[in-house]
Design brief:
In chain A, 45% of the residues lie in helices and 11% in strands. By secondary structure, chain A is an alpha+beta fold. The first copy, chain A, has one domain: DD-peptidase/beta-lactamase superfamily (Beta-lactamase), CATH 3.40.710.
Chain lengths: 302, 302, 302, 302
């Protein structure tokens, strides 16, 4: 029988050298301050047990991992109608971002590239009276920690560097695929990215992805079992930007990464894992984080 | 000896059928109200004489023809340093607009595509305390009519449909090629486009392009003779968007068009012409306007 | 306990209306002759049992499904070195085919788009003295039918319409990523596509994908268990061209489609399935084939 | 009164430092052997007089300058019908070559980019029983030297490096815009590029461009005066690849360049000039050649 605690500790040892590799994100000061050499991993199995190892108490902002939760919340409210505004296909290269968006007339390729997450945020904005509060409360309820907060320094800093994201939002607006005020939606979007957690809280937040849509903390059926399988398929094909194929090849699990150096990965019917290590590869994904999940994947049955 | 007045009258007759063709611009209400079947032409020879025919007293907004004057004003202030921020090459297709801008890292291909005119407006904004007033005064001085005004309804309407231009401006800003507030620069840009003239005023405004840089109304050496030759070369290769090559092939003169249905054309050492007819072809250029200039070109020596 | 035979028969009934939809491929006469209204499905479970329903004895050419086998044969010979010549990432849109190949300097995005399969064929060509024979023999051994043949009419017809594929091959050659004679490699490639099977033979040929790399007919460890998992991940992210994301969303299994109307799908540890129905959707995938696999996926545990 | 001989000698002195700059083309051995530090210039005025200075007797292959003559010969045979197969618009960047061709469905942007010259060669191939001979004879007749020959070493070497051009030809063929055998047309195309001349012969060959279509050597009306003006407009907007705009800005004359380091330039009604110096800038245009034409342009009236 597999001993998860031992496995996580061995993973920690295995990836220690990798945790010094890569470069931390530098486009905003708050992220640039992160130190390499740190690593944490946690997983929650579908019986509710939590295992962890490494720098478990360290906090970090969720960044693009928030896109998986805001997509979930948009699917709760719009169902398949959401796909009228955003696609389900992998996106090709980063270089394409605006190119692709222009060529495809303002409909982002999938909900995990920035344009897709921003249009999802616009959709949520239309249905929630206090969207930032609502997403934060969702994180709190699903992580089981009502003290989860937003790092306002990070949110402000992201907003000050919003130009490229603003360009995408205005381009979508020119195609009629953006309903609310660009600046307000972007402010909400950056707040979602700036929610601060540790790996245990993050693994718990996404427990529903391994558990047929039911959150192990709140007990809520967040989305249906079928929707959960669909969302995992999207994460499998598109969760790691331009490295989605390589991640699938090496790890073989649905996942989502963020530039703070965090990644979640899902083994349906078994567990949701979260890793964190700030050193990033050239695709913006955590070097040690991917190495850890690749190592973990060798030992788990799927 | 060539009789310009007769030539312009014959041109009017020749293009009458074309003036009913094409479609008026519809993206803003003020332009959509223009009626087809109208046509006007004027030219000013370098000895200062003015010839005209057709609906000469009709007013229209200059739209993109303003780009030639704002570029001139930016060259006065920056000289060749302006080319650090905007290129001198033809742009290929419309479809490329943001694609090309992204691929070339925020430096627009030339000053006559929208992105290039917007970055030029940003440059002017940095050097003028009252940029809208300054450009308007320039039009007044060079057209010889101090009553030229801005059509505020058009300016407001353009601003309300600014999304695609805002996307370009924010994309340039993300690449560090935009210095001022996006909304303020766009507002100035739309005001330049909304300056209202008739064909005689327009031909006079650009008399310096055929006269080695000296305005026939103000007597000012607006730009040097060498700069004038350079600007005419740019107009030749890039003045009519995606139809620049076709215009060069058919007309063979430097030119600049606007979506109100106006076009200026320059025969260096001889005259500057202006035409106006609201019906546009699929490239956004006046059908009768191009036909008129093509007809005119057959009769003038160059 | 799940009764596969009943499930396949119910699937047949379910998709009957879909089998009349879509359009058969028309770019070569041999494919254009296929009739709509036909459907067949087969699967082989990892205990070796075979189930089937519908027009099971009907033969069709494997077309792009051959890419999964030629990739396997190239991985046997080159291992991970193959990835120096072809990527592992999803490809974005069809429109991109040559665009992407040019931008990425002759390295195809993945082995399932045409350019990627052609470079894989070039790699095989360098290592096999009789490549067409070798691939045919592999199909025979793994399908358990030594009478599988190549449809030469189809191969010839594809070759006569080779121009776009030739363009890709020459473009790769210009970047130094093509070793052999373009025409000869294309001839081999079209022969692989023209291998003729029925759904039972096809499901058996790919049994190793659900069985940790071991073929249920030949008993051979075709590729390692780890390689098999990797290959399934690639099929999941890139197996259905521009509809890979939609297929993942609806079916959630690794798969590969061909323009003859066939699709294989893999449920690791359980079975390999093959379907066939000639009516294609706008992405070139079998309408009834996808509907069948989507229906099947609802009933099997994964 | 302008003394051309003095002007050319002053030009020689002026550009001497530039002749050591840039890099000679290296993609084929025959071009790589050219030495920097050489320069030659010649011009023929419309009264038939020839002026020259520098390394006037040095021979070089015409390379892409041949495109101006093959286009002329195609216009003789097809007139405006040629524009059904090739466009008249500037092309944007080199990077776009296949991208643009794919996006625009196999119709090259203009006849001076490689794809456009190849489709023009295909058109000529359909109408000439001995196309290579015919083009060579045209060069001989118009240069006034019946001993002009093709450098077969260069032609062979170009053909061996034909892959990218073959990719374009096959792509056009896939879109139905290529009538003859790809390899045969490419062989003719490379022979046109390998015609060997000196600057005097080259200036004479293109005398018709400054003389309303009449060749000063043969006396033939090669194309009409109107077609000549049109062709000059095309050379103005598209003759120097990605540097067409910059060349227009600096030189302000229609021109065409080749990778052997040669450029022709036309001042309609006055002269046709040819320069040669093998050192190329990053766009593949002769450094000293452009500098010479820029210098020349300052002194001539236009």
């Amino acid at each position: 029988m597999l001993d998860y605690q031992t496995l996580l500790e061995k993973t920690c040892q295995h990836v220690e050298p990798f945790s010094h590799q890569g470069e931390v994100a530098t486009y905003i000061p708050a992220l640039a301050e992160q130190k390499k050499g740190q690593f944490a991993i946690a997983l929650q199995t579908i019986d509710g047990k939590v295992y962890s190892a490494g720098d478990v108490s360290n906090k970090f902002t969720v960044q693009s991992v928030s896109k998986a939760l805001t997509l979930t919340m948009a699917l709760q409210r719009y169902g398949d109608d959401l796909w009228l505004r955003v696609g389900k296909e992998p996106s090709g290269t980063a270089f394409n971002s605006l190119t692709q968006l222009e060529f495809e007339q303002g409909k982002p390729r999938n909900p995990f590239i920035n344009a897709g997450a921003i249009v999802t945020a616009d959709a949520l904005y239309s249905r929630l009276s206090a969207p930032i509060h609502a997403v934060l409360e969702k994180f709190r309820a699903q992580s089981g920690n009502s003290n989860v907060v937003i790092n306002r320094t990070v949110a402000n800093s992201e907003y000050q560097h919003r130009y490229r994201n603003a360009a995408m939002a205005y381009l979508m607006k020119s195609f009629g695929n953006f309903d609310n005020d660009v600046e307000k939606v972007l402010w909400s979007y950056f707040n979602y990215c700036a929610i601060e957690v540790n790996v245990i809280e993050l693994a718990k937040t996404f427990s529903y992805l391994s558990n047929k849509g039911v959150c192990l903390q709140s007990g809520e059926q967040v989305i249906s079992a079928k929707q959960t399988k669909q969302l995992n398929s999207l994460l499998f094909t598109s969760g790691l930007y331009d490295a989605a194929g390589d991640f699938a090849y090496r790890v073989g699990m649905p996942g989502k990464s963020g530039v703070s150096g965090t990644i979640i990965a899902v083994l349906p019917g078994q567990f949701t894992a979260a890793v964190w290590s700030p050193g990033l590869d050239s695709f913006g994904n955590s070097v040690a984080g991917i190495a850890a999940l690749e190592y973990l994947a060798e030992y788990v049955n799927h």
